[in-house]
Amino acid sequence: MVSRILCGFKSYKMKFTLKHIYLFSLLLLIGSCSNDDGVKIDEEKPTISVNYTGGFPQGCALLTRGETYNFKAMVTDNSALASYSIDIHQNFDHHTHDDQVTDCTLDALKQATNPLIFIENYTIEGGLTSYEINIPVTISSDVEVGDYHCAYSVTDETGWQSRTSIDIKIVK
Amino acid sequence: MYPNMFHKIMNIGLFFSLCSTVFAQDSFQIKGVVIHAKDLSPAVGATIVGEKLHSVSSDAGVFTLNNVTQGTYSFTVSHIGCKPQTISVTVGPNMKEIKVYLNEAATVLEEVKVNGKTKRREVMETPMVTHTVSEEFLKSNRENSLMQTLSKIARVSTINIGSGQSKPVIRGLGFNRVAVVQNGIKHEAQQWGNDHGLEIDQHGIENIQIIKGPASLLYGSDAIAGVVNIQPNKIPLPNTFGGEVNILGESNNNLLGVSAGISTRKDKWFYRSRLTYRDYGDYKVPANRINYENYVFELDDNNLRNTAGNEADASLSIGYVAEGFKTETVFSNVNAKNGFFANAHGLEVRTSSIDYDSSNRDVDLPFHKVNHFKITNNTTISAGEHNLHLDFGYQNNNREEHSEPVPHGYMPTPPNTKERLFIKNTYSLNFRDNFKPSDQHGMVVGLNAEYQNNNIGGWGFLIPEYNRFTAGVFAYDQFEVNSNFHILAGLRYDLGRVATKAYYDWYPSTVNNEDGSTSYIKLQRSKNKTLNFGSLSAALGLSYIDNKTSYKINIGRSFRMPLANELASDGVNYHMYRYEKGNLDLDPEISYQLDVAVDYTAKTFSIGVSPFVNIFQNFIYLNPTSSYYETIQIYEYTQAEVFRVGGELNASTTLTKNLQLDASVEYVYSEQTSGPKKGFTLPFSPPLSGLLSSRYQFNNFLFFKKPQLIADYRITAAQESIVPPEEKTEGYQVLNMSFLSEMDLFKNSLPLEMRVKLNNVFDTKYFNHTSFYRLIDVPELGRNISLSVTVPF
To answer: pTM, whole model, 2 decimals?
Structure first.
């Protein structure tokens, strides 16, 4: 592309006529149409889902204190998965909602005193294109019961990200 | 010069009344009086010139023309300080009184320069590729924000948030790569942020110069992609008083705006003042629901909830002008508050107990408010061969961002809504000496210095407190080889020092140590650190005028110093829902650019093309990584080589005396040629876009004078080149119509100016790739009717 511009540059030194304007316009049009550098770039986001048999938690799931659950989600990418994260936080103030199909019934609003906070990041080694997240999480028996939110996110090696989130409830 | 003549000219209109009496069968007398409309005082010494007829008004403003035979005559009435006007008088029995209004010649005659060159010729001669935007253009194209008004110019586009907030983008680069200069002083706010606009009152601006391409040579850092230079208004004429009131209403967001300005000048002292107030409701989009990721937001009556806002601006200036000396000091304050779309502020999905739909005019959380106070002084002194320019500036920018306090990660629920506070003080000094060592050379040497002090507050940390000092010296020479061939060459060197201050979280985070133990510590987000930068800029340009064609070619090296957010960010940006990480090792950006501009202008036809090639050695880019920090994706400032090419094509033709057609196409291709996003474009890349515009001027009818109908058809291609986290954006076509006219409603005053605008005529639902809300799939504004009336006095 540089050479094309320089080509126009040379002609600048020749006799000045209106024709050169057309040449420049042509150049502009050529410039505007070419994207033929051959570098292949990844334009696809990874995917993430709990909507399969075994996916956990499902929307409106009830989790009992003192139990350990395996959090499972399927992630895929066209080229290479990189990292994922799990974030479980209280939704006592109803500040956000999930992106699942069903609407869950929420408890009354309340202030948090000792909520469960689970914030973890993980990497996916080996440039896989498909992977099942499987992380055991123990709901400690002293955490506050109520509405919670579970957010998964995943990135690929390019830096694309996908997220999904699920409304859950921690009960006694 | 003419003290007697100016003595009583305290107004801007001229009331010119002609009376006649029959005193012979075929010979008549025209008797008239020339009066100033404002105070009805007589205009002394006005000349009334016709073919073979001539008169000058007396001390009482009276004049007579004797022995006029029956017929139609044409006279030109002239008076110092007024635009001359030609009138037609039918002389005969029962002659009717004829009234003529002469408008003030609004400006000191700019064309009468010592060198006798017109402004147009000067623009042609300077090798720099610039575009001057006139007051007329601004008036007939005014949109919701100043920058949206300018986006009609090929190569200028905007990054928008909501209806009234936008930032300039020149050839695809914006934020802190385009310097916005007002009254010679660089506008300094939080320009790096993409969720707020420019704190400048768009009313009362007469002239804007746009420099496309690197202009570091003249403006230092930040002008690496171009400059939007809002020039000081012209000085009013001696012994004049004038003003205008503008009222604006818009249907889409129920905007009501009022702006009033006055200016007055005695002999040497002059004063100007302006007040502006705008209040608007939520804006409407042609959609009932927004789909973002897997979320669906229902909209109430197409209202994009919580995008209402208001703005109140005031300015006052005082100036003094004398032989070889001119100074003006401007005090201005811009205060604005506006809300952000409540459902997904930035990228985070929110629910709230706030009843947003109860009113579409209130501003609830999240919102931001900003106050920008500015003092500028521009002084010009002519000392022999030298023209010295001095600019001083002080700016105080106070910006608050408020959102609902929500706990996040290890951060408990914050105590209040004040998420972020920035208080930035900027002191600027520019000095420039223009002189001509010989007839062929025009030399300019100058100095710019700026000191900034940034303070922060609120519970959300993004950028640290810092002090920054920058200074640069430059010199350039415009050499006239012959009257049609000019060369411009210049050099500049800049030094900069940034000192960031340490910051620690106000809450403890849980940290798992390597030995298996757990600590709870207040994490350090930024360090006390001093960084020094230095950089060289250079430019070389040629301009050649060959009859109707002008050629310009420019090559330059520009630079930009990294900003504090690029160096030292370290925190969650909730507006974007990402973790932003600065890099203290960043080098100043260096850019090389080749610009060419060819323009051909004939009487009824003009065409111009302006291609460019640009290489950034180390473009600073906020790169989305594949890593997480406490489950939030980390974006890290990195540097990459970037190659860009593009240009604009403009054509304009006057088909008939009344019909003018304009067409323009703009395109830019960007590619990162190294670094983690090699092969990708740059964020917010504007797609290929064209604008077809036709303007038809009707004959005067009823009380409408110079009525014009304008149709703008914008055709934008899809943007297929994206970089994470963007989405591809489909192409669109939008039609805007406007009707402009002067209205001659009141006999003794200047005509009113009226503008009716119909934007997005077909209520087309489309997405703008360079809109902040594009990231959350919010379409652009629906149909909007606006009415603006300007009453001059």
So the answer is: 0.79
